[in-house]
Amino acid sequence: MDRETAIEQLNNPQDRKPSELGEAVECLYQECGNYKAVAEEVRLPLSRLSQLHRIFLLPEGIRWQIDEGRIRFTHARQISRLEDEDDQWLLAFCIMTKRLRGKDTKETVDVAIQKDRPLRDVLQTLIGIRFEQVDEPLLLPFSFEDRFKISRAAWSKRMNWADFCLHAIEKLTRIDIEKIASELKRLASLIDSESDEADDTA
Question: What does the alpha-carbon distance between residue 22 and residue 44 come to, in Å, rounded to a whole number?
Fold first, then answer.
């Protein structure tokens, strides 16, 4: 993205995805070196520029959920306050699956940062999330950890977890069928060869 495009997008943010606006901030930030200088180029306050930039620096899979509107901007701001990428993923997943309110999300991040506590512990004690609980989407007994890992991999490919699972199953099934078909052809070829040898002997 060039400088002119970045300025145009930030001055006309309507219908722009947060990641697009964040990319525009990144472009100008790299050129200007600080948010104050960027703010002099566009019609957005320093705080908004900083928020958009921090969201842009989140993992791509989380940015995708934000762009799709599944994670609200108020939640995204709290995710971006976390430095550890694993914590960012965990909080995003809990927001999506446990329907955390904006107030609860902010309080969780505040406690984790100010008291230097592991995010997982704060989510369990403050919000009451039970990480050992077994969920049963699609009637399959997935643990929290299983579904978290699947969702993280799926979001990174811009897919929801159910579509990702279906795609994986179809891929594995197709591979198995191809192997079976190949083996049957090999066996058929062997049978034909043995049959030809028997005819020659006769």
Answer: 12
Give the distance between the most distant pair of CA atoms in the chain: 95
Q: Per residue in 87-130, pLDDT tens?
A: 999 999 999 888 899 999 999 999 999 999 999 999 999 998 88
* Nearest of 33, 56, 54, 35 to residue 44 by alpha carbon: 35
With contact defined as beta carbons under 8 Å apart, do 65 and 71 qualify? Answer: yes
| Mean of pLDDT values over 158-184 | 67
Q: CB within 8 A of 26, min separation 6: which ones?
A: 53, 56, 57
Query: What are the DSSP E strand ranges found in the chain?
Result: 134-135, 142-143
DSSP string, 56-112: HTS-HHHHHHHHTTSS-HHHHHHHHH---HHHHHHHHHHHHHH---HHHHHHHHHHH
Q: List, in order, residues 6 or more apart from 165 with CB less than 8 Å away.
A: 138, 150, 154
